[in-house]
Amino acid sequence: MQPLSSHSDPLINAFPVELSGDAEAVLAIMPVSRFRPLDPFSVVVEGQRVSIPGRLYNDEPPTDALASLSSRQRQLLHCLYSRHHDGTVRQRHLAKVVGSVDPWVVPFVVQLVGEYVVEILTVICDELRDLAMPGASSHLAYGQFIVDNPAFFARTQRRVVSYWSCYYRSAYASFQGYPGCTLLELLRSAASDRAGRPWPSLAPAVGTRVDGYC
């Protein structure tokens, strides 16, 4: 497994090393933040370990600055801003990349599955319906990512249940009706096909009382 990039800016390490030049171009137009990125999480992308910020505090760059970026570089920028501390900003930038099956995009989307903004979960559900189709590009990409990162996905499953239990029981009396549950089922299906075995579910069964969360 290749190590993290040796570049000094931690945001470079959010992507595989072959994208370091593109990431540097993105960072060059991002406004400087008084706060460093918080709570990075580590995952494996195509055999390389990357470190993605849990939260980002940089303001968004002006629109005219984006014109200097290539399409790949804009993709990386949208990935980074999907980690922004403002949920509205996260959702806006997610919408620009959620349809991509490039492997470095996948962990940014899966991380959002395990967060608390239900509107973002709905966007992901709407865009990734072909996860249910064996052989589809997204089915293969997400399945492989989960197989490569089982502990990360287990944590994601627990978070989905926890956020539903804490914040959304009044809107979704059953976990099975919650958009996060739909996404977990789709992701587990993709992982099961990729692994050649049923992928473990950490979601509560129908009718099960959920205690001990939050």
Keywords:
214 residues, mainly alpha, two-stranded antiparallel ribbon
In short:
This protein is mainly α and 214 residues long. The protein is built from 9 helices and 2 strands; from the N terminus they run αββαααααααα. The chain folds into 2 domains: 97 residues, no CATH class; 114 residues.
Question: Can you characterise this structure?
Answer:
- By secondary structure, the protein is mostly helical.
- 48% of the residues lie in helices and 5% in strands.
- The chain has helices at 20-29, 63-66, 71-81, 87-97, 106-113, 118-127, 137-148, 150-168, 179-195, and strands at 41-45, 48-52.
- The chain has a two-stranded antiparallel ribbon.
- Strand 1 (41-45) and strand 2 (48-52) form a beta hairpin.
- The mean pLDDT is 92.
Look at the helices and sheets and give the structural class: mainly alpha
**What share of residues is helical?**
40-55%
Number of helices: 9
Report the major sheet: 2 strands, antiparallel
Mean pLDDT: 92
Intertermini distance: 35 Å
Spatial sequence of strands, sheet with the most strands: 1-2
* Unreliable residue runs: none
Task: Work out the count of structural domains.
Answer: 2
- Element pattern in H and E: HEEHHHHHHHH
User: Hey, roughly how much beta strand do the residues contain?
Assistant: under 5%
Beta-strand segment tally = 2
- What global shape is seen? globular
Q: What radius of gyration results from the CA coordinates?
A: 17 Å
